[in-house]
Amino acid sequence: MNNLRKHFPLIEQYTYLNTAAAGLLSEAVFDYQQDKNIDFLLQGSLGRDKEANILTEVREKIAYFFSAEASRVALVPNFSFGFNTILEGFSAGTKFLLLENDYPSINLAVETRDFNITYAQIDENLEQNILQKVETEKPEVLALSLVQYLNGIKIDLHFIQELKKKFPELLIIADGTQYLGTEAFNFAASGIDVLGASAYKWLNAGFGNGFFMFTQQAEHKISPKTEGSGSHMGKYKENELHLLGNLEPGHLNFTTMGSIKIALELQENIGLQKLEQHIQMLYAEAKKEFANLGLLEESVLNRKQHSPIFNLKGDKKLFQQLTQKDIICSQRGDGIRVSFHYYNTFKDLEMLVGVLRK
C-alpha cells in the first residue's frame, strides 16, 4: 500500500496517526476544490449553473457506495447540523436510549431537549447492555455512535440487525463519522433507520460536508419543521414526506459537497476490498502490540469487535515525546488516541511502537 502515500503529501514528512481527528486531504480532492473555486472566481453564476447536477451526482454516488436509496440521502454541512434537525422531528417526552460518554454531538443534542432519556454503559458487554435497556426501559429511539471516539470500541453490526428484527418499532439512529470509510457497509441491510456522518474523517473529503441516509420507516416517523427554498428544489424532492427536503432547506456548497464524490471515487479506484483488508491487518497487529505493552483498557482487550482507533495509556510527557518524533496523534480522555487508515503502513506502526517501548 506504499504507493497510496503519493496521494497524501503530508505523510511524506510525518507519521500521521490522527484520522480519528481529521482525515488527510488527497491531492485529487484538493485539485477538484481548487478547480471549482477558480471556475467560480472567473465565471460567477455561469460556473455555478454548469454544476447544477453535482448534488444529484453526489447523492447517487453515496447511495451506490453504501447501498442506500438516492431519494433518501440528504447532504448536510456536518453530522451535528443534520442530527439536530432530525431531533426537531420528535415530540417532547420521546424516550431515547443513549450510551454513557458517547460523542457529545449525540448526547448533548438529545440532553438539551425535552426528551425522556436512559443510558447504557460502554464496556466489553456493550451489546448486552443495550439489549437489557431496550427490554426493560422500552425506548422509542436508540441513538449511538457505531465507533466510540474515545477508545475505538465498535458496535457489533450483526447485533444491530438482530435488535431491529426483535424490536421493529425501535428507531435506530447512528453516527457513522468514525466508521464509514473503514470497511464496506450496506445501509439497506444494516437495520439502522437513520445513519449520518461528517465526511472529513475516514472518508477524506475535507471539511464542510456530510450526509444522512434514512429508511422509509424513519421518513414516516420523523417530521422536522425546517423548510426553505432548497427543500423543494432538485431531483428526488417530489415526495410528500420529504425528510430529504427538511434536511436541505437552503443552498449547499457545490464544491465541498462534490468533494465527497471525488473522495469516494479514489477509494473505489484503489479497491474497497483491498483497503478494508489492509486496515484490518493494521489494527489487528496494532492491538496485539499495544496489548503486549499493557497500554489498552480491559474493555478493549476483552472484545472481538474493534476499530482502527485506540486510546493508549499515556500522559502529557509521552504525548510530547511522540510529537517530537513527528508522530501526529491526539490526547483524548485519560490517554493518547492513535488511529490507522488505509494510507498508513506497518512502518508507521513500527515507528510508534519504537517510541512507546522506550
UniProtKB/TrEMBL annotation:
Membrane-spanning segments: none
Domain called Aminotransferase class V: residue spans: 52-352
Keyword Transferase on entry: yes
Domain of life: Bacteria
GO MF annotation terms: transaminase activity
Entry protein name: Aminotransferase class V-fold PLP-dependent enzyme
Gene3D superfamilies attached to this UniProt entry: Aspartate Aminotransferase, domain 1, Type I PLP-dependent aspartate aminotransferase-like (Major domain)
Keywords: Aminotransferase, Pyridoxal phosphate, Transferase
Keyword Glycosyltransferase: no
InterPro entries: Aminotrans_V_dom (IPR000192), PyrdxlP-dep_Trfase (IPR015424), PyrdxlP-dep_Trfase_major (IPR015421), PyrdxlP-dep_Trfase_small (IPR015422)
